[in-house]
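Colleagues,

For the teaching module next term, I've prepared a clean inverse folding example: a structure given as tokens, and then the sequence designed for it. I'd like students to try predicting residues themselves before seeing the answer, so please don't circulate the second half yet.
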């Protein structure tokens, strides 16, 4: 692998990280990463009707109620962020 190939791969990765929020970056904390994963999961559950129907049957709730609950969970999927040491 040449230096130019390595630079090209790194520039492509930086481009993806700038374009898509969930791909992360070097300064991403563990908490931020977990929040991205949870939000992506909830958005997928809401966006895929069969999955939403599965959850509603499993929890014996209406589909609208499950959609509402998932949207509420997207606000703080992992609880409050930890305190930062400055």
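(Answer key — instructors only)
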């Amino acid at each position: 692998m040449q230096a130019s190939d390595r630079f090209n791969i790194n520039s492509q990765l930086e481009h993806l990280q700038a374009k898509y929020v969930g791909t992360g970056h070097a300064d991403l904390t563990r908490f931020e990463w977990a929040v991205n994963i949870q939000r992506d999961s909830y958005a997928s559950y809401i966006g895929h009707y069969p999955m939403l129907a599965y959850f509603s049957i499993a929890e014996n709730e209406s589909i609208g109620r499950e959609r509402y609950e998932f949207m509420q969970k997207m606000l703080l999927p992992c609880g409050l962020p930890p305190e930062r040491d400055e």
